[in-house]
Amino acid sequence: MKPIKDIYDSLGIDDQYFLPFGQYKAKIDLKVMKSLEHKKDGKLILVTAINPTPAGEGKTTTSIGLAQGLKYIGKSSILALREPSLGPVFGLKGGATGGGLSSVVPEEDINLHFTGDLHAITAANNLLSALIDNHMFHGNQLDLNEVTWPRVMDMNDRNLRNIQTKQREDQFIITAASEVMAVLSLASDIFDLKRRLDRILIGYNSKNEPVFVSDLGAADAMVLLLKEAMNPNLVQALEGVPTLVHCGPFANIAHGCNSLVATKIGLKLADYVVTEAGFGADLGMEKFLHLKMPHLNHDVDAVVIVATLRALKLHGGSTEYAQPDIYALKEGMKNLEKHIENIKAFNLPFVISLNHFDNDPLEETEYVLTWAKNNTFPIALSKGFKEGGKGMQDLANEVVKLCATQIPFKPLYQPTKDIQSNISKIATLIYGAKEVTFSKSALKDIERYQKLGWHLPICMAKTPLSLSGDATLKGRPEGFTIEISKIRPSLGAGFLVAQTKGIMVMPGLNQTPRALQFKLQDSGEIIEVNS
Questions:
Q1: φ, ψ for residue 222, nearest 5 deg
Q2: How far are the Cα atoms of 132, 188, 357, 367, 397 from residue 370, in angstroms, in the given order?
Q3: Complete domains list, the chain, with CATH
Q4: β-strand partners of 236
Q5: pTM
Q6: pLDDT tens per residue, range 454-486
């Protein structure tokens, strides 16, 4: 690793905006944005993927590798990634810093407490919860009758999904799915942060009228806890590419994008900004385009969709994905085809990144490359894990070519339209659902929000493991129904969250959580023994 000051200096901005956190981490003061206003934006590359499987697709590894590949071919590049949550780190998924020679460092710091942003978000959220309960304890002048604001923690703990306090029924959700996380991710500056926090709905009074944070007067204290977390974090990829790692909303139960300010700063400081949206193109990409991009004032210039032979074979019904199985591969291609259709529905240029493993069967690799050629889909074999930027030259060159085209973005729906029809559009056009059903509770939610004039974009909460709402349905399922169980407002973030049946906003740990694999060695080092 280079000293983080060296990475910062390579950006060409004044030292007054440099906020060091030790030798290898720093924050960039948001005030830098004013000094960058005159600069022209670079190109924005969005990395997405097919639906994830246990075989992995390597979306973050590809993102990092691509940024290094752009540097390798002589282009100025920056990465903009999400911060990991402790839930996945100690659960099933693990960290979020890439792999092999396409990693961002210092890995352990980033995956654990980093610069304390997630803890600040947790504290701000729970300060609001405490202030609400305290207000009710001391007379309840706001006449709160129904409190909708939950507590949060940055850990998977299913036993906290529903709790009972002396005052009321309550719940915990994971920090990465909280509205405060979404607000911080989408705020353009500290004043916008305050405005968004003020708009947060905390519940309803006995007349069924909404009560907001502004009514309670809690926003300024929340800003006090969040003001340092608003500054993006700077680290580095192994080959020295500056990397902004900031905010980490989940893409299945939240909107799945890094912060607006990190992406904006990146666009001013490099010719190419590589960012990613969580999970597949059915979730993270759709949300990036409808929920984040309108605030960027910059359209996505190119999309990279990541796939592996292993994951494609799993989508084709194989259980032994490491073994050759051309039939399963052909079946699994249907999942990739659907995600390509989704990208084309937004009128965006794209390239397929086939993430390469050393033991990938040559026949299967050739099949995918030939299939892409026959369909006139641009494709590149990505070897970033083993070779770093050198192994990503082909993809980098394809991306540069795509970014030279000017294609107007086409949104799927307009937020001002009917809530129910917008949810149905996403489910039928992006997921391929035959129909969408709404529970009585969801219909009641819609009626309430439409009466209040809350016509907002939709943030779908759905399993990432399938195009459908059923995690067991792989490939390209057809004829299925998406069931909407609940719709909750995230007014500070500026969207409505539509939860599909069975979705959990507080994940649980698996039978053998990753937390049990860490062991203290005689040397004093803590390592993951079964990695």
A1: -65, -40
A2: 60, 44, 18, 5, 19
A3: 4-115+229-403 (3.40.50.300), 117-226 (3.30.1510.10), 419-500 (3.10.410.10)
A4: 105, 242
A5: 0.95
A6: 999 999 999 999 999 999 999 999 999 999 999
